[in-house]
Design goal:
Two copies of one chain form a homodimer.
Chain A (H helix, E strand, L loop, with lengths): L7 H11 L2 H5 L9 H19 L3 H7 L2 E3 L2 E3 L4 H10 L18 H35 L2 H12 L3 E6 L15 E4 L5 E11 L8 E9 L10 E7 L1 E3 L5 E4 L2 E6 L10 E14 L5 H37 L23 H33 L3 H36 L2 H4 L5 H11 L6 H12 L6 H16 L10 H24 L1 H34 L5 H18 L2 H10 L3 H4 L7
Parallel strand pairs in A: 3-6
Antiparallel strand pairs in A: 1-2, 4-5, 5-11, 6-7, 7-11, 8-9, 10-11
Helix pairs in contact in A: 1-3, 1-9, 3-6, 6-7, 6-8, 6-9, 8-9, 8-10, 8-12, 9-10, 9-16, 9-17, 10-12, 10-13, 10-14, 10-16, 13-16, 14-15, 15-16, 15-18, 16-17, 16-18
Amino acid sequence: MPNYSTPLRDLRFVYRELLDPGVMQGLPGCEEVTPDLVMAILEEAGRFCEERLQPLNRSGDEEGCSFDGGRVSTPTGFREAYRQFIEAGWTTLYGSPEYGGQGLPKFINMMLEEIISSANFSFGLYPGLTNGACSAIERYADAALKQRFLPNMIAGKWSGAMCLTEPHCGTDLGMVRTRAEPQADGSYLLSGSKMFITAGEHDLTENIIHLVLARTPDAPRGTQGISLFLVPKIKVNDDQTLSGANGVSCGSIEEKMGIHASSTCVINFDNALGWLVGELYQGMEAMFVMMNTERLAVGIQGLGIGEAAYQGAVAYARERVQGRAFDASRQTEGEADPILVHPDVRRMLLTMRAYTEGNRALAGWVARELDRSLRLEDPRARRDAADFVALMTPVVKAFMTDCGFEAANIGMQVYGGHGYIREHGMEQFVRDARIAQIYEGTNGIQALDLVGRKLPAHAGRYLRQFFHPVQYYLQEKANDVSMQSFQPPLAKAFGRLQRATAWLAQRGMQNPEEAGGAASEYLRLFALVALGYLWMRMAEIGIRERDGAEALFYRAKVATASFYFERILPQSGALFAAVMAGSKCMMSFEDDAF
Amino acid sequence: MPNYSTPLRDLRFVYRELLDPGVMQGLPGCEEVTPDLVMAILEEAGRFCEERLQPLNRSGDEEGCSFDGGRVSTPTGFREAYRQFIEAGWTTLYGSPEYGGQGLPKFINMMLEEIISSANFSFGLYPGLTNGACSAIERYADAALKQRFLPNMIAGKWSGAMCLTEPHCGTDLGMVRTRAEPQADGSYLLSGSKMFITAGEHDLTENIIHLVLARTPDAPRGTQGISLFLVPKIKVNDDQTLSGANGVSCGSIEEKMGIHASSTCVINFDNALGWLVGELYQGMEAMFVMMNTERLAVGIQGLGIGEAAYQGAVAYARERVQGRAFDASRQTEGEADPILVHPDVRRMLLTMRAYTEGNRALAGWVARELDRSLRLEDPRARRDAADFVALMTPVVKAFMTDCGFEAANIGMQVYGGHGYIREHGMEQFVRDARIAQIYEGTNGIQALDLVGRKLPAHAGRYLRQFFHPVQYYLQEKANDVSMQSFQPPLAKAFGRLQRATAWLAQRGMQNPEEAGGAASEYLRLFALVALGYLWMRMAEIGIRERDGAEALFYRAKVATASFYFERILPQSGALFAAVMAGSKCMMSFEDDAF
């Protein structure tokens, strides 16, 4: 198994150098979140993940979860690791202090999620789903429900799960059939079957709190009739003690390509007691709060696995000797040279690095705006920040998981045949990373969210939160000679994005099929420009610092930025051409001819 | 499991319409290979693969090969299927009639390989490796060895394996340590350990004939001292009867990401009796004959799995209802519409289709030239054909396996969460397809072969066999109005390829690191142009025939060609930019900074 080491230096770079840590500390309630505190938390988190979670990653994959008579057992070591995880307080970071949380900014939690995903992707899903459930409960549930459920969820004693998908509907939740019968006391009895429920049943916690999309008897058809319910696996008394079994059972777990240590369950509700979360028929809205938290987290899973694959590939490229360097000055005394000398191997490593470090910067940017959207006092500034997060959520989810899968595959390729066998753990990264492109809305759905909802929302208002900073920065640097290998190509790619956006705004309005046909390529074009902007900013810092005390680190930043600009950003041209070609060739293809 | 159906119509299109079947029939020894005979063989092969091999694909993956005390068992049903396979004569198609083969052109065998790879990728590796071994024996072994081994190998009673890799060397075979001690009677005793030996041990045949790279005691260092030996698992008498065990044993089999039904073995040689194949120290040359046969076969594996994934995805897109069509005229009466109506789903399907049908045409073209190179009487024409095959082999291997993996992943994506679970078989395609990018020389090695060996060979002579037909065709169609949406973009992409080639020829000569750094992107650029050329030719046929009896088929050809030109071929611009950026940003990256 590749030996993962937390990229503290790069996390610090993003948090303290690329983004302004003062912005974070200036937020209400964050006065004590000093840069030193943040780094101390991350250091401790890194140590925990390296020492406790990483050693269980491969064994967890080999052993997998098991199902026996409705009970799900996690792999050996997971219970103990989870106990240590909650004892160390890692589930409490950003929960509200009112319910036992530390009230830290989400920014810190998102960095923690990267580290967990690198060390043990499957493990991270258990606390990860709880986070999403807590977000929805905190925002929409009434005071009594919050008081009854949140403290133990934030403490990690109870976990959460999101029950959306049914066998006949995933993307199209308007078809949900699970029923919720109202009772005289205001509670509901839920019946129905949900599938693909991550962490829906397991042995890590004494209770599992399901958030369930369901339909009341008189509900309107489609998504307008969907409501969200809280349904505990074990009933809970008002004093938060456990009462007795609820009508919730696990019917089976799925055999999957990867994330074997994460349980993916069929959950059956049979007159299970539940409570409405939020307003009747407003379930989709509440679900999206939970879902958006998860979508950012899933994007970060892609980042985490990309980092782990990168580290594994670099280690192998240093130690595996094979073939001779073209350049005699790189040749060693041995029978062959480390494969790190070969240009094509360096190309692979730098591709992974350019994606991973670029995506870390993107995640940091979005995380900072998320905290600003939740904490700023000025309503207009809050709204601006929220607009940015809404815009970027599908980009983070889709692009960062695509990059994670790509990086995992490149990492495996660096190992050659040794990557395809299980022993080295590289093929596990590929299998685990693959789910992130699918769950929480496939990446195609993310692209449709971007072009169909986020671009047109409020006449393009969201978009300004991204376009304006990029535009200002390009103008600011237009005559900066030190930026001359970055500014013009970014300006060119940004111009393509602007034109593609204008085209979509015009054509997509008239004919949604045009937007649908362009969506995936448009999202990638968008993401490449976002990374280009961030890489240019990072190069600027690198150029400024490259003769200082940490010269090697900063020179590598500049070099990776150059690689990104020379080798990856040019893809914007092909994506632009694909968008502008329109969807006619797809839509006119005759159904019978497929 | 998706229900695979042999694409006979498209195989016929490639063979009878795109390529001239008269060329094949005009070759010496092929006078009786009529188009009807070819199609009858393919029909029968398709039936066999659909009925006998496909049903074992998923069960073979689940059960896998097992290892017990040196014995390897293939999954349930494989022995019986293999027996039927050889009884039906499928291993004998292109072997020499002198040794019991049917002497058919390799073209037919390559189409058979596509069908087998679609139906059961793992199964195909057993006869596939035998093919490669037979090629080398037929070309390099002396008459006695041929007589003793080929008849039973061609009949499929004995299988073949290629023993190249050792734990410390795969790509760099100059480091091979396996020893061959010469004996007084001209035979050798081999000792050493080989790994990653596909079909190195199994229970399908009574004997396994290993072709082993090894080093004699006085051999020069490096690849110049490598020789090729034939080493049977069971010794064989002159009359082809089995004698007794040889010093060949299987130490273990690998746990892999996929191709679980194919055994991947550690093979130990302990004073095992063997014979030299070809000249002493000429092992690499003989090995490359075998390897090139395999490289084409591996490219075709990518094609086969892409076709299977495409068919699975189309079936699901027709039956899965989810969401509403944007266009009211496509809406059904049900609660939702089949996902085939969604532009992004069609984009995914057409991407798979454009790669798969394009690659089928490419495989057909290369296969035809392979037969011409082996059978034409005019030495210059033979050489030209051989040049073309040599040039295209790394392109076929790398690009077609990359497309196979991409198609498998797209197919899985169409299924959403249902693709990630094992039940539907889509994730198996991804796991199986992944090996093809790695074995028989990683795709990075293929790219280096193209730029480092094939381009410079004989001052660019190989290249003319590809550039000239493309150039002539572009000139011929320059003023053809029916081709106006194809000719200019292909001319543009071809221009990029020409410039990139000239740049590589100049810079790569001076500094091999420039060639190495550009290789992967150059290979893909090359392949996109090759597919562009073939898609334009296919579009031309489609346009000519689209009002005839099979209008739907030909209209689909034209539409898929349009999709390829609008959506995929523009990638040539980004690849060109990456090549021309040079390798400086990679080579100047400091080793310690990785």
